[in-house]
Amino acid sequence: MADTLTLTLQPRTILGKKVKSLRKAGIIPVHLYGQSVNPQALQCDGKTLLRVIAQSGMNTPISVHIEDQEDERLTFVREIQWDPKRGDLIHVDFLHVDVSNEITAAVPITLTGEAPGARLVANATIVQLLREVEVRSLPLDIPPGFSVSLEIIAQPEDVIRVSDLSLPPNVLPLTDTEEVIARLEISRVEVDSGASGEDPGIGLDQGDEQSSEASPSS
Question: With a threshold of 0.85, does the pTM exceed it?
């Protein structure tokens, strides 16, 4: 279970296209929605928000306090919008959850270590085919991420599957456990047709000349 972060948000009265004025002032518009709550338009200091979402990712719970409201709400980041040209943070959606109700989440997969099988063949590289696995569990049991060792690939034909992940007993994988996470890929080296030093064009000319000499004269 991941540690819970905390974040304070403020009610937002500026909506629509006018939120540009907020962003210019370093304030990021936020939307809160989810189980047992009415959707709320909120806002937060941009630097504070960036720091928290950098720590949380999509699977670390965030305890949100809204100014002028007594209750704190358990949330997860569900959507982050960035300016496509400048790369600035422009909006964040938070999903409110009930700690007693299961949720689904996409958990990232990280490969660690080295693959012994890669040393047995030339031009072998690791290819990661699956970068996240979908799971279901109670909100506070969602893992922030999974790590799996490349040592599983002991031979060139070995692969890492979802079944190789160490999932807690209270976390149910929704992704097919036989799906391949990573495998070896062997690059084929193309042989240069001119590597032997022979000129195909010369050989063709010689063949034509021989054919000409062998034919009867008219």
Answer: no
